[in-house]
Design brief:
By secondary structure, this protein is of the alpha/beta class. The protein has three domains: 194 residues, Methylglyoxal synthase-like domain (Rossmann fold, 3-Layer(aba) Sandwich); 127 residues, Cytidine Deaminase, domain 2; 133 residues, AICAR transformylase, duplication domain (Cytidine Deaminase, domain 2, 3-Layer(aba) Sandwich). The protein contains 18 helices and 23 strands. Strand 22, helix 18 and strand 23 form a beta-alpha-beta unit.
Length: 534
């Protein structure tokens, strides 16, 4: 016997969403439950030959003000709220002639599903439900003695329990549905608050959108000794809401790397590929939130192979993101390689068949992220949060500041390098190469160092050049996410045959840096825009 069984004798039903309602009410009737409903709901039930009483039978008052007042009444709320295990409550309920309501089935005017920003203020306010939230919250508050259903998707579980327990509902299910109901009403109120805040220009109502977040437990956090979960915004697009087509559950680190890969690939599509007549495929390979490889080409397999070649050692156990449908030849090439996650807008059937043999490989289907403002980035710090807009704007000046010319034909490669530099942890330096008309790839990356010289000498260059190849390369560009504070990085670049440099500019020593370039015959562009990512 499950604990706290509650027999459902009287149900109050008032719903905007009539989906799956008839099956629920037919079962309630068969179980001997008396059903009371508001006018619109009662009409639907009566047409289906389900016995139903009018809400006025319990409220004692008629509807008024064109429906603005109907379920908001002392009798209805009292019949829900009194405590059945409190002798004084029961005595008062009896003296007042109240009917005990054991189940409330309700959902609200669809304010959150309407394009309210297109409506006049007088129209908007008529979409705000008053009585519905009161009934739902009353039932959820008194969950020990009342059951509540606020979502048609919960009906089937409720019906199964009702059948199993002969017309009763256990406490555990009432607890769960009460929690869901408070989430539902909180989300509803937040949407109204957001619209009023926007309309009356008082700022963001709930920047965290806590009421619309769905919590999903993870096996653990960044390390096994840490608890972890993901909060999924049901109204936003991104890695958290990507459809998992196969593979193990995603880990905390998978989500972080997947997000980094999706953001970088989206930027490559918007700022490099989108300007071309031909569809340019981009592939990003991410390890520890840093793109360790990337490639762009008119052929997907070429883009993939160039991305992999940038740092094949780091690509082991990485996360990959494709800008377009993942094709057969790319899947064939990857089938014998160890990868944690692959993200793509879609997968060909042949590719899915190949990946089906790698049961642990996680395949995520997700559209790339839209380009433009609007997303706020939140990071927790001790005692609070840091909030900023995502670094979405990308309009470099590309101003040549040196005597030596910078070939116009390399400007698309510069944008490719700037996207990669933007998504590497600062201080970042990336060396990129153009090997064909529309083929861009990463030669080496340096990131996450306290100074830019270490990013270049300890990381980017060792991955790019050997003694035999330390000669000038006409199609190689070095891009930095921040300005050069000293000429030393120019001198190192010149020593290794790097002729083309790109940086934001803005240092008090810009003139010294430019002079160092001129002495060594290097060409440098200022972008006028820094792209740190800490």
């Amino acid at each position: 016997m499950e604990r706290g069984l509650l027999q459902i004798k009287t149900a109050l039903v008032s719903v905007s969403d009539k989906g799956d309602l008839l099956g629920l009410c037919r079962l309630l009737h068969r179980q001997g439950c008396r059903i009371i409903a508001s006018k619109g709901t009662a009409k639907i039930l009566a047409e289906a030959d389900i016995p139903v009483g009018a809400v006025e039978e319990l409220s004692g008052t008629p509807e008024a003000f064109h429906g603005r007042m109907k379920t908001l009444s002392f009798n209805l709320c009292s019949g829900i709220l009194f405590r059945r295990d409190d002798p004084r409550d029961c005595s008062e309920a009896q003296e007042l002639g109240l009917t005990s309501i054991d189940l409330v089935v309700g959902n609200l005017y669809p304010f959150h599903r309407k394009p309210v920003e297109q409506l006049a203020a007088d129209e908007v306010v008529e979409l705000i439900d008053i009585g519905g939230p009161t009934l739902l919250r009353s039932a959820a508050k008194n969950y020990r003695h009342v059951a509540v259903l606020s979502d048609p998707s919960d009906y089937q579980e409720f019906m199964d329990a009702l059948i199993k327990h002969g017309g009763s509902i256990p406490l555990a299910l009432r607890e769960k549905n009460a929690a869901r109901t408070f989430l539902y009403t909180a989300h509803y109120e937040s949407k109204i608050a957001e619209e009023f805040s926007r309309r009356f220009k008082i700022g963001t109502a709930d920047p965290l959108h806590r009421s619309r977040l769905q919590r999903k437990e993870l096996r653990y956090g960044e390390n096994p000794q840490q608890l972890g979960y993901v909060l999924i915004d049901r109204e936003a697009q991104g890695i958290a809401s990507a459809a998992k087509l196969q593979g193990k559950a995603l880990s905390y680190n998978n989500y972080l790397d997947g997000d980094a890969a999706l953001r970088c690939t989206s930027d490559l599509l918007h700022y490099v590929s989108a300007e071309d007549v031909l569809p340019l495929h981009s592939v990003t390979i991410v390890k520890h939130q840093n793109p360790c490889g990337a490639g762009t080409s008119i052929h997907q397999l070429d883009a993939l192979q160039m991305a992999w070649a940038a740092d094949s050692k780091s690509a082991f156990g990485s996360v990959l993101c494709f800008s377009h449908l993942l094709e057969l030849d790319a899947a064939e090439w990857l089938k014998d390689k160890f990868i944690e996650v692959i993200i793509a807008p879609s997968f060909s059937e042949q590719a899915l068949n190949i990946f089906a043999g790698k049961s642990n490989l996680r395949l995520l289907q997700s559209p790339l992220l839209p380009n433009g403002p609007g997303e706020e980035m939140w990071r927790s710090i001790s005692g609070g949060f840091l909030v900023q807009e995502e670094d979405w704007e990308f309009s470099p000046e590309l101003l040549r500041v040196t005597t030596s010319e910078f070939p116009l034909g390399l400007f698309p490669l510069v944008k490719f390098g700037m996207v990669l530099s933007k998504h590497l942890k600062s201080n970042s330096v990336v060396l990129v190469e153009q090997s064909g008309l529309k083929e861009f790839s990463v030669l080496g990356t340096g990131m996450g160092q306290p100074n830019r010289i270490d990013s270049l000498l300890r990381l980017a260059l060792p991955r790019s050049f050997t003694e035999a190849t330390s000669i000038a390369r006409e199609q190689v560009v070095m891009v930095s996410d921040g300005f050069f504070p000293f000429p030393d990085i120019v001198q190192e670049a010149a020593m290794h045959g790097i002729k083309y440099l790109v940086q934001p500019g803005g240092s008090i020593r810009d003139e010294e840096v430019i002079a160092a370039c001129d002495r060594s015959g290097l060409s440098m562009l200022f972008t006028g825009r820094r792209h740190f990512r800490h």
